[in-house]
Amino acid sequence: MVSGGTYGTEDIVHGAGYGRAILILLLTPLLWSLPTAFMIGELSSALPFEGGYYAWVRRAMGSFWGFQEAWLSLVASIFDMAIYPTLFVAYLSRMFPWFQVNNRGWWVALAVVVACALLNIAGVKVVSLTSLWLFLALSAPFVAIVILAPFKYGALANAVTKPTTSGVDILGGLLICMWNYMGWDNASTIATEVERPQRTYPRAMLVAVCIVALSYVLPFAAMWVTGLKPTAWETGAWADIAGLLGGPLLRIGVVLGGVISAFGMFNALVMSYSRLPLAMAQDGMLPGVFAKLHKKSRAPWVAILALAVGWAMCLGLGFARLVTLDILLYGASLFLEFAALAVLRFREPDLPRPFRVPGGKFGAIAIGIPPILLLGFSVIRSEHESVLGMSSFMFGMILIAAGFVAYFVNHALKPQGWAPEQKPEPVV
Questions:
Q1: How far is it, in rounded angstroms, from Cα 215 to Cα 14?
Q2: Which of 58, 177, 200, 203 is most solvent-facing, going by the fewest CB within 10 Å?
Q3: How many domains is the chain partitioned into structurally?
Q4: Domain limits at 197?
Q5: 8 Å CB contact between 7 and 257
Q6: pLDDT at position 51
Q7: 210 C-beta neighbours (distance < 10 Å), count
Q8: What is the pLDDT of residues 303-329, one digit of tens each?
Q9: How far is Cα 205 from Cα 215, in angstroms, rounded to an integer?
């Protein structure tokens, strides 16, 4: 799964224009997605533990940094997960503007959070079934757009579109592009499941990146030839633009696809994020209540409910601000993961690794440089947005610092951990 799919990419064109947007969409996966997929491919194949990123960082650099990795991932998830209900409402309101009035959209977004939390508490098998059929319905509207657009060559140059309220610039467009290329870590576990992973895994990831990039680039390239102005684009605008090309039916198809995409991605990611507090509780770094599993489904229901409260609290921040905060905090956790990759190469050189990042120790260090450099743009962008009367950057730094405080408070209250070490319960 890769963040929002084609839905949610509109502001990239608004901020950068067609040509630069397509260039950004082509370069970002090479500098951002592939290094991350390779890094997590090695770590997940060497250390296939419950808790994932948290367990890797803890193994490499100790409990303090492991706690920070989990904290950063959870805090980033609060903003990341709020993006999907926001997209759900953005597309739904294109068909039913009634939801834009007062706080109706917020209540719809809250309903998405509640419904997905209950689905996950019901069990992972339910999530898998619903996510599969939801995912299969998403690509058809954009295939139609690519086919129909050439027949409208230059015809939309003077098209009258809904006035946009987007304030996204080229930096904001880049961050939205980076967000749309997140999620490769969810596929990286195949590094342990394929034959000859050292050769097969990089090739599979490269092919997957090309397919995803084309799914983003082709619809924009098709719309470029119609002459539609970049200023017509904003979050949810695919629906109105599809209506200009293919009429009401295509517009309805995009709206349905947008709400299905947002619901399906949110539903699937609840399962992933809830495992972090579960793993920390099993390791004695959080109260044991977070390790409670549902009697029938074995889902970590306390962790899911606690996270759902946090996700709901961020539903009113807006798409662009949520993406900026998500990338800023996710970037800090990603830095720790790249550090863990390099540290383990030195500390545990003989650790069995079905897949290794090519290039030896130098390659393990160098592969993290492009993503870290890209994350610098999130720092720049966050200084120009505000949350609670302060810059998004300052707000993010407070959240990062809170992780340090939380660890030391935790350690002071329970120096030996919240619970004795125990064998993790199986999670279905």
A1: 18
A2: 203
A3: 1
A4: 10-413
A5: yes
A6: 60
A7: 12
A8: 999 999 999 999 988 888 899 999 999
A9: 15
